[in-house]
């Protein structure tokens, strides 16, 4: 068997997350249904990130295995075209290649990059509205947000920054390599981007981090509060969970 890796982009608004779920439309389920149509058998896939319902991806990576006969039957460039024809227009296979033996989209990853978009303005965005968290009448202090983010960089127990039920009897220590906060224009509309890079993340971890940073930026909490939240190891001590639509799995590195 040969391991195949594809790079997948999708708009997550109409999906119940990445992972397959019985009776629900998911990214993984939709992709596996298309593969089954091509190869007339069930093909199990592995994703680099189990994005939540409503979360988007620019560079999700998915791996699976094909036999040599299946590779001979349909070259990979034609497989990409077939899968794009068989899947909805809100998802797109950007690239597909053979991967080294033993490769896993999930376990071989050394770095995942997420980006969260915020728009703090009186007037709502138009073109990028489905991909941002609009904060009307907010005046975010970016310098305070950056100061607060520094408390989270490095290896810590992020139990305060994940869905409480997902942390029961689980290791919640993770390492954040960097958090950068910067402005950017998309289709002529300005937004604030929170870029978070790490090897692995807990359930809703990035969204809770962003929600907490917004509380700091909106002067509800001082920057040092983030250090206190980390030490508490209690989800109730952190800020709100930012809406899913502002989050994008941007890139996975191997």
Query: What's the number of extended β-strand segments?
Result: 10
Q: Residue share in helices?
A: 10-25%
Which structural class best describes the helix and strand composition?
alpha+beta
The stretches of 5 or more residues where confidence is low (pLDDT under 50) are none
Beta percentage is 25-35%
Q: Helix count, per DSSP? A: 6
Distance between the termini: 21 Å
Largest sheet report: 10 strands, mixed
The rough form would be described as globular
Q: What radius of gyration results from the CA coordinates? A: 19 Å
Round the mean pLDDT to the nearest integer and report it.
95
Give the ordered list of helices and strands: EHEEHHEEEHEEEHHE
Q: How would you characterize the overall build of this protein?
A:
The protein is built from 6 helices and 10 strands. Helices cover 23% and strands 30% of the residues. The chain has 254 residues and is an alpha+beta fold. The longest helix is centred in the N-terminal third of the chain and has 13 residues, at 27-39. Helix 1 (27-39) crosses helix 3. It is globular, with a radius of gyration of 19 Å. Strands 1, 2, 3, 4, 5, 6, 7, 8, 9 and 10 form a 10-stranded mixed beta sheet that branches. The protein starts with a strand and ends with a strand. The mean pLDDT is 95.
